[in-house]
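Why this split exists: single-chain examples teach little about how molecules sit against one another. For that reason, every record in the complexes split bundles all components of an assembly together and asks for one structure covering all of them. Below is a record exactly as it appears in the raw files.
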Amino acid sequence: MIEFSHVSASYDGELAVLRDVSFRIEDGSFVAFVGTNGAGKSTTMRLINGLLKPTEGQVLIDGTPTTELKTSELAQRVGFLFQNPDRQICNNTVREEMMFGFKALGKESPEAEVRADEIMAAFGLNPDDDPFLLNRGTRQLLALASIIVLQPPVVVLDEPTTGLDFRECTKVMEIIRRLHERGTTVVMVCHDMEVVADYAESIIVMSAGRVLAQGPTYELLRDRVLTQEASLVAPQMVALSLALGSQHPQLANTAVGQANTLSEMERALGLEIAEGGEPR
Ligand SMILES: Nc1ncnc2c1ncn2[C@@H]1O[C@H](COP(=O)(O)OP(=O)(O)OP(=O)(O)O)[C@@H](O)[C@H]1O
Ligand SMILES: [Mg+2]
């Protein structure tokens, strides 16, 4: 479990960029941090992986404050994907990059190499490629693969889909979904509310260095006061069903006014769309 208890943080020791932040992330959950630029999301991620220490309060990983954990201990518990993958890629070949984490932890082994081979194959990565010559999407996949190969119980992903096209975004997110289904705790920062709505079970809403709310994704994204306060754009289908409900109050508490996804709206409207998207 990850727990923040009344955490404040600062980069220069004076200006607090996080103030009195408290939340808990249970093992096995899939949580997204959302909020405007500068809200403090990346700072919160840096506190989870111990790159930054709180000026007040405590960050606890499985009950132990990060201030008492060695970097190597933290690295084994929490895999971290930076906002920019180029900040973590540092080897000359894809294979070396995949093995780098094992090397840093002194855990190179034949089993580790087999696992790296399996993941490179699953991700469609060529072991001999030069990481710096790969395109943005593939570098992001490599950065993610080099974390997953270490099998950390928690992954922290700071904007894993930024700069990716739709196909790459879906590929990365489906990998993350499978990781979560196999029991990994996923903590993700994401600006795209459609992605957040599709994948995250719950969200933590931040604004100006504070946590405004934590709760089930759709429940919070349907809260107009909250989304306005945090300047969040609700996913399209949520916005549509809310608009229908407010323009036609008799619909507000029906399946149409409550639909969160396209398939819920189709069901609510009694439509059946055949495979391939053509109406029957
Ligand atoms: N390395 C740093 N040194 C000093 N101040 C910083 C540093 N990184 C971030 N800040 C400041 O801390 C505050 C929170 O920034 P943070 O990067 O955590 O926000 P964010 O929610 O991740 O924003 P974004 O959506 O733009 O990535 C901002 O005011 C930012 O200017
Ligand atoms: Mg950020």
